[in-house]
Specification:
By secondary structure, the chain is an alpha/beta fold. The chain has six helices and seven strands; from the N terminus they run E-H-E-H-E-E-H-E-E-H-E-H-H. It has one domain: Maf protein.
Length: 195
């Protein structure tokens, strides 16, 4: 019998929830109340890693015996960051800027054991090379998929895959928002049996 501690996903992202459901483990979700503003002179990968840890730790106080999963993703081209656009106009502007470029989607993952205080932190970058996109292609994509809640405005798990030339990374799930290969390794280190 698997007597693993309760599992909490410190996120209300429907994408992360759907990915975690693939493990077949019971879990609950909870919104972490964390300010996601980058710190001055903080590099994009550092922002993602700090926020993944902060999200897990923010929820831990309400779940003292649980394993808490925090994750954050920052899409960037050099030091230029592409967040969740929120509006069609911003999504079009982001995709116009990324057209023909290689953008790094830096996904950080933290598994925090609220009972022991131990945290495991790992970053999983994915390089995404965008095709050269016409204004018409971008506008049709944004109108069809409405990627307004997605960092970088391109949902690779949906129609956004048609905007890309290539992907390079260790885990395709990281691009969607939750690196499952790293998470499985972390959970096993905490005694969770998978599969």
């Amino acid at each position: 019998m698997n007597t693993a501690p309760p599992l909490v996903l410190a996120s209300t992202s429907i994408y992360r929830k759907a990915l975690l459901e693939r493990f077949g483990l019971p879990f609950v979700t909870e919104r972490p109340e964390v300010d996601e503003t980058p710190l001055p002179s903080e590099a994009p990968p550092e922002t993602a890693e700090r926020l993944a840890r902060a999200k897990a730790e923010a929820v831990a106080a309400r779940h003292p015996g649980a394993l808490i999963i925090g994750s954050d993703q920052v899409a960037h081209l050099g030091n230029e960051v592409f967040g969740k656009p929120g509006t069609e106009a911003r999504a079009i502007a982001q995709l116009t800027r990324m057209s023909g470029e290689t953008v790094v989607f830096h996904t950080a993952l933290c598994l925090h054991n609220a009972a022991s205080g131990r945290s495991q932190l790992e970053a999983v970058p994915t390089e995404v090379r965008f095709r050269v996109l016409s204004r018409d292609e971008i506008e049709r994509y944004v109108a069809t998929e409405r990627p307004l809640d997605c960092a970088g405005s391109a949902k690779s798990e949906g129609l956004g895959i048609t905007l890309l030339e290539a992907l390079r990374g260790d885990d395709p799930n990281a691009l969607v928002g939750l690196p499952l290969i790293a998470l499985a390794r972390m959970l096993r280190a905490e005694g969770v049996r998978l599969p």
